[in-house]
Description:
Elements: H1 7-26, H2 35-52, H3 55-58, H4 61-67, H5 76-93, H6 108-118, H7 123-172, H8 177-231, H9 236-244, H10 249-266
Amino acid sequence: xxxxxxxxxxxxxxxxxxxxxxxxxxxxxxxxxxxxxxxxxxxxxxxxxxxxxxxxxxxxxxxxxxxxxxxxxxxxxxxxxxxxxxxxxxxxxxxxxxxxxxxxxxxxxxxxxxxxxxxxxxxxxxxxxxxxxxxxxxxxxxxxxxxxxxxxxxxxxxxxxxxxxxxxxxxxxxxxxxxxxxxxxxxxxxxxxxxxxxxxxxxxxxxxxxxxxxxxxxxxxxxxxxxxxxxxxxxxxxxxxxxxxxxxxxxxxxxxxxxxxxxxxxx
Length: 267
């Protein structure tokens, strides 16, 4: 089950807090507020984003954004145990016996792979079908990365546009000291908003989404390896050792400790 990940929200909050504290120690926070600068940076960059992507894709932005705050799919240690048990059952009772276990499988991708094994589909076909599904997931998720990365590139650009607007206002009437102050404020604050939005929110979200996809793809590849090993009747111990190579050193240590506890309980 996927869990809500508070770390990105905490990181953004900490970043904003540090910036606010730094501003407050040097002056008033109110001088950094400008509605016009915010409109230029946020709405302007989003308008450019609308010109870059189909509307049906942009309508998925809220859903994509939610994914950035969900823990990545990295339950590989648990999968080693699942495949080990399934392999033993398949070796002792036959591949058809796995059908009884399908209802207990929570992941739809893994369930479909095992169902193909039960149905007697050739291993090459299973590998091709599951591989195509992985490619589809990677492509679909890639759209989300690109949207936020593009937005992160556009925000500073529109910050610069705001800077140009401010400079034009300032230079249009150098005799008016008030206009010079307003123009410089608009110029600098808009640049500040663009850099802040891009580097604290948009680009980190794009990077987080990309890292989540990489974790999920790696886990899916592990599932494909496990399904094909079960289908070919590989020794359960070999299946376990093969899938353990997908684990990090920390996960392997945890797996070894759990196996040791099982041995002690059995004895």
